[in-house]
Amino acid sequence: MLRILYSDIRKTMQSRAFLICLITNVSYHILLVITLKVLYHFFFHNNITSDEVAFSFASIAIFLVTASTLISAGEFSDGTMRNKLISGAKRSEVFFSGMITGMYQGFVHAAAAFVTSMLTSLLLTTGFEGYTIPEVADYWLLIIFSCMSIAGFSTALVLALGGRKISYVVGLSIAFGMKIFLLYVQDKLYPESGNCSLTGVKLAVFRFTDRFIPYSYLAMRPHWDSVSYILGCGSLILISAILGVMIFQKKELL
Questions:
Q1: Which helix (H) or strand (E) holds 200?
Q2: Most CB atoms within 10 A, among 28, 165, 234, 250?
Q3: Is 79 left (phi over 0), alpha (psi -120 to 50) or beta?
């Protein structure tokens, strides 16, 4: 298991697709901060604060992490997956190694975004105004755990689908669909004017989504207790692992 995991992580970190996603991640934040700084300086004659840009990664994290983990589908087409099994590795070991590697990708992307955010905030903004240091730390920990759980789910999905091209469509469709749905959920739960008008089952479903679905954690500032977030991320990882390995064990590989 450890040998397979080491090989998977090493191969992923050297993958061109992963490196492109990582460069996109870092570049997005730097370009955003520079663009806003220029606009604020010339059009508003003001400086930007860290509050406005420090957590911008959360807005693209769902798509970026999902796209990055989809590279694991390449193991099926290039024969790597079949070679692992021929060499005597158990399917469960292959699955969990792949899923852990996917979660590691989520961690690396979030960690890279955190470092980029802190450096650009220090150099190009006036600092935080609406956040304390503990709040910034809590927010970034939540982003990191959310990215890891989403990456684990996305990787488990690819493996469960046998690396077929449909996994790209399904994975990105889920990411896009969740993004749209969460915007709708936020609009109904936290309307800009007036109070929430939801009641009954719809209110319960929307509150559950907002509280326990890791995708929603990247949509807005933390507002639930830590236990809820831990349960949400942990549950997504656990469900992905259990259902994913059950399907993968019986999957006919290409």
A1: helix 200-212
A2: 28
A3: left
- Number of other CB atoms surrounding residue 158 within 10 Å: 28
- Domain edges within the chain: 2-172+239-250
Distance, CA of 195 to CA of 16 (rounded, Å):
48
CB 234 within 8 A of CB 148: no
Integer angstrom CA distances of residue 45 from 40, 104, 212: 6, 42, 41
Per-residue confidence (pLDDT) for residue 77, from 0 to 100: 63
pTM value is 0.92
What is the total residue count of the chain? 254
pLDDT band at residue 76 using 50, 70 and 90 as cut-offs: low
Burial (CB < 10 A; 0-12, 13-18, 19+), residue 49, is: middle
Counting beta carbons within 10 angstroms of the beta carbon of residue 78, is it exposed (0 to 12), middle (13 to 18) or buried (19 or more)?
exposed
Cβ-based neighbour number of residue 196 at 10 Å: 12
Query: In the prediction, which pLDDT does 79 show?
Result: 65
What is the Cα Rg of the chain in Å?
A: 20
Instruction: Report the alpha-carbon distance of residue 225 to residue 142 in Å, rounded.
Output: 11
Look-up: residue for tokens 């739960």?
Answer: 189
DSSP for residue 120: H
Q: Mean pLDDT lowest for which of 24-33, 42-51, 69-78, 161-170?
A: 69-78
- Residue in this structure with the two tokens 């809820």, named with its chain if needed: 228
